[in-house]
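Worked example 3 (structure in, sequence out).
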C-alpha cells in the first residue's frame, strides 16, 4: 500500500518528533518555569536531537525486515509485500536523523547567535 505522505511505518518520524517535543515542553516548563519552552528555541533543538537518536536506529532496524510473499486465495497469484521501505515525504526513515540534526544545529545557531 502506497501513501502520498508516507510508506510503511514512516509516519513514526512525525510521531517521534511530536512526542519528544511534547515531553521536552513539559519537562522544561516544569523545571525552569512556565512559558520557557515557548520563548526559547534551544529546548526544541534538544528534542530534535533526541528524536534523531531514536529515528536512526529504528529506521535501520525496520529497513532490515525482509519482504513477504503472499498468495491470493481467489486467483492463486503471488504478491510480494515490501516490509523494508519506511519513508516520510519519500525520505527513508533513517535519513530523517541527519535532517533533524541539521535542523537542531540551525535552531541552536539562531538561539545563541
Amino acid at each position: 500500500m502506497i501513501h502520498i505522505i508516507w510508506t510503511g511505518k514512516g509516519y513514526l518520524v512525525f510521531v517521534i518528533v511530536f512526542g519528544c517535543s511534547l515531553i521536552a515542553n513539559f519537562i522544561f516548563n516544569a523545571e525552569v518555569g512556565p512559558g520557557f519552552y515557548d520563548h526559547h528555541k534551544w529546548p526544541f533543538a534538544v528534542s530534535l536531537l533526541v528524536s534523531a537518536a531514536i529515528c536512526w536506529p529504528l529506521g535501520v532496524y525496520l529497513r532490515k525486515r525482509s519482504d513477504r510473499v503472499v498468495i491470493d486465495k481467489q486467483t492463486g497469484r503471488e504478491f510480494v509485500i515490501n516490509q523494508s521501505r519506511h519513508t516520510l515525504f519519500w525520505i527513508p526513515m533513517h535519513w530523517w536523523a541527519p535532517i533533524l540534526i541539521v535542523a537542531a544545529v540551525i535552531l541552536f545557531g539562531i538561539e545563541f547567535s
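Notes: The CA atoms of residues 46 and 104 lie 7 Å apart. The chain is about 55% helix and 10% strand.
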